[in-house]
Design brief:
The protein is mostly helical. The chain has a single domain (3-301), classed as Rhopdopsin 7-helix transmembrane proteins, CATH 1.20.1070. Helix content is 78%, strand content 2%. It has helices at residues 2-16, 20-50, 57-75, 77-86, 93-125, 131-134, 137-153, 156-160, 181-220, 228-261, 268-283, 285-292, 294-333, 340-357, and strands spanning 166-168, 173-175. A two-stranded antiparallel sheet has the order 1-2. Helix 2 packs parallel to helix 11 and helix 5 (93-125) packs across helix 10 (228-261). This is Melatonin receptor type 1B-like. Belongs to the G-protein coupled receptor 1 family. It is found in: Membrane.
Length: 371
């Protein structure tokens, strides 16, 4: 136990002695990932709520995954960013316990949601005739409720046993102590092992069915039972799983190495990559939806086009107002012997030019001059 804390002190020194270039790189990169996590997942939840055509069962699981990712971004990641900025944990122990609980809760919710999503695809593609019986409205509510309740309870064995989360300077967040191998085994088995086994089994069966389906179509030249849209949805969800596993497998391996060795044995850069990988898994999912699913892409485009159009309209309005004000001030302040009409005509011409740039979005501009 003492050796563990001694090694953490070494990582504290490494965190505080980073070069200026490394500090700027880590702070900027993490801030960008946090911004992507919050805006992307908030936008995903908004368009699922806003667009009726996106309110399908599979998309409710996407919304659940977006909630866990958004929760990580809003409730936890700002604490990590502050730590990177000041090169130490600037908060008290209570905040450390809070941050550790949030991290495990959201991670557990993500793995379970991906497992339920895989089961959803399994019944939709492989066991089609049972799909409407298994994924009813009330069963879906029960599944999502179970996911979040079990994720919140994931911390209970650790906390009830009297253990506390400790700040890890290498990972720059609060995490488990090393002398709780039983709890690590519990987390890995229940919240990683079982969901991973379900995901592998379900998508293996799905790909077998899809391959058989495509083979039958090529031989008979007949129309397939599986819709093209469902196959695209399945492909997008599988890509999410691949990215998630790609980010979290190195994290799991590093945790297992330290648990077996009984000490924090890796470099500070390895632990920093640990945290960045976990953050990246929450940030990239909206990009997968946008580029892998046509329906999501269209809804993203509608929202972003509306937002950009509003900003552009406001910009044009401000520019027009600024030029009108300058014309009026010119009319008031110019001496009588100066050719005021010439200067005013130039200003009015600029206003008209801006009106043309705004493509008719502004109301007709009238300038009244009292000389």
């Amino acid at each position: 136990m003492n050796k563990s804390f001694d090694s953490l002190e070494i990582y504290s020194v490494d965190l505080a002695s980073r070069s200026l270039g490394l500090m700027i790189f880590e702070i900027t990169s993490f801030a960008v990932l946090q911004f992507m996590t919050i805006t992307g997942n908030a936008l995903t939840m908004y368009i699922i709520w806003k667009a009726p055509k996106l309110r399908s069962t599979s998309n409710y699981f996407i919304a659940c995954l977006a909630i866990s990712d958004l929760g990580m971004g809003i409730l936890s990641e700002h604490l990590l960013l502050a730590t990177l900025i000041v090169s130490r944990w600037p908060f008290n122990e209570a905040v450390c316990q809070y941050q550790g609980i949030v991290a495990i809760t959201m991670a557990a919710a993500s793995t379970q949601t991906l497992a339920w999503t895989a089961l959803n695809r399994y019944f939709k593609i492989v066991k089609t005739k049972y799909y409407t019986k298994v994924f009813t409205k009330w069963k879906l509510i029960a599944i999502l409720s179970f996911t979040w309740i079990s994720s919140i309870l994931a911390n209970c064995p650790y906390l009830l046993a009297g253990y506390k989360f400790v700040f890890h300077p290498g990972k720059f967040f609060c995490y488990l102590t090393l002398d709780v191998t039983w709890f690590t085994a519990f987390l890995v088995s229940i919240y990683v092992g079982i969901p991973s086994a379900v995901i592998v089994f379900c998508y293996f069966k799905v790909f077998q069915t899809v391959r058989r389906h495509n083979s039958n179509i090529s031989k008979t030249r007949a129309t397939g039972v599986l819709s093209v849209e469902e196959l695209k949805v399945t492909r997008t969800l599988f890509l999410i799983v691949v990215v998630f596993m790609g980010c979290w497998t190195p994290i799991l391996i590093m945790d297992l190495i330290d648990t077996v060795r009984g000490r924090w044995s890796l470099s500070r850069s390895a632990y920093a990559a640990y945290t960045f990988l976990g953050t990246m898994s929450s940030a990239v999912n909206p990009l997968i939806y946008a580029f892998g699913n046509h329906a999501f892409k269209e809804e993203y485009r509608k929202v972003l086009n509306f937002s950009w159009g509003s900003v552009r309209k406001m910009f044009c309005w401000v520019r027009n107002g600024a030029h009108v004000g300058s014309v009026r001030s010119l009319a008031i302040e110019q001496p009588r012997h100066v050719d005021v009409n010439k200067n005013i005509s130039i200003k009015v011409q600029k206003v008209n030019d801006i009106k043309e740039v705004c493509h008719g979005q502004q109301e007709k501009l009238s300038v009244e001059l009292n000389l």
